[in-house]
Amino acid sequence: MFYRKFPPPAHLQPFVECFYIWEYSKTLAKPLTVESPPSGFASIVFNYGTPYRVTSQKLNGGFVPKNFLTGQATKSYQLQLSGQIGMVGIVFRPAGLHTLFGMPMYEFSDERTNLRDVLGKCVDEYSDKIEEASSHGERLALLEQFVNVQFLRKNPVADRTDFAANLIVDKRGLININDVISELYVCRRQFERKFLQKVGVSPKYYTRIRRVGHLCNELAQKRWKIDDWQDLIYHYGYYDQSHFIKDFTEFIGKAPSLYVKNNAELANYLKN
After folding, report:
1. Contacts of residue 248, Cβ cutoff 8 Å, sequence gap at least 6
2. Do 99 and 129 belong to one domain?
3. Which stretches make up the HTH araC/xylS-type domain (predicted)?
4. What interhelical angle do 160-170 and 203-220 show, nearest 10?
5. 165 and 109 belong to one structural domain
6. pLDDT digits (tens, 9 = 90+) for 134-182
7. 154: number of CA atoms within 13 Å, CB side?
8. Secondary structure of residue 88 in the 3-state scheme
9. Cβ(93)–Cβ(186) below 8 Å
10. CA-CA to 57 of 20 to 30 Å: which in 133, 209, 213, 233?
11. Nearest Cα to 159, choosing from 114, 230, 211, 95?
12. Domain of 168?
């Protein structure tokens, strides 16, 4: 199993979190179900492996498009993989996809939307080249080119919404939205409307998504033990254990102890 993240060039860093390549060239001996918590990032994915299924609150285990755009995930979801794994992706900073491509992100929350339906026939050229590429370097270069073309066409500038959304990510969701609004000297109603347009969910809800997503990644990488629940609750700003369990279960669909014990989540493969 090969998975690796690659940082974007400096001019794309306000808008792109990373590029990634995920491959398993052998045929999986048996179908693999991998669960992922919401991460707080939108992405564009090109799949050159075996088609796979996704189950979520909106998707009922059907095959996802070969190349797709995904907005904010608001709940945990599962990938059902079989055959060979081969995909590359662009993970965007929370407002980056809108800033670069201008799409209303609230329309894409919890969805896997065919990329050709959104961006047109130009997707086919990149899809073919990515599939035909003979190295990871070639595929990475094609991803950068794909974003750079739009960057040069759009000449984007990160605005206050980008700044606020990126700050929520950097603070792992542990931030007071009222303080952010005061710091930016913006009207709350205008800020919330713009945030919904650019990120896909409300600012307050996004802090909760980012907090639980980062927490799940910490649990997946075994940085916390079950005996450390009280320290974890304090570290992530929950009022008490019942608040922590309620919030966790709302997003993940299971209690934290069951998640740690039984779950083969995506973070075991897609390490940060």
Report:
1. 212, 215, 255, 256, 259
2. yes
3. 171-262
4. 30
5. no
6. 999 999 999 999 999 999 999 999 999 999 999 999 999 999 999 999 9
7. 19
8. strand
9. no
10. 233
11. 95
12. 160-268
The domain spanning residue 173 has which CATH number? Answer: 1.10.10.60
**Do 130 and 207 belong together in one domain?**
no
Considering only CA atoms, which of 169, 175, 166 is closest in space to residue 213? 169
- Look at residue 139 in the predicted model and tell me its pLDDT: 97
Go through the chain and tell me how many residues it has: 272
What domain count does the chain have? 2
b/e code 115-124 from CB counts within 10 Å (16+ = b): bbebbeeebe
The verdict on 18 and 115 lying in the same domain is: yes
> Which DSSP string do the residues of 161-220 spell out, in sequence order?
HHHHHHHHHHTTT-S-HHHHHHHHT--HHHHHHHHHHHHSS-HHHHHHHHHHHHHHHHHH
In this structure, what CATH number is given to the domain that contains residue 12? 2.60.120.10
pLDDT, tens digit, for every residue of 34-84? 888 898 999 999 999 999 999 988 888 899 999 999 999 999 999 999 999
The answer on 128 and 96 residing in a single domain is: yes
AA letter at 59:
L
Q: Is the pLDDT of residue 269 over 60?
A: no
Which of 154, 181, 215 is the last residue in one of the domains? 154
Alpha carbons 148 and 66: distance in angstroms, whole number: 22
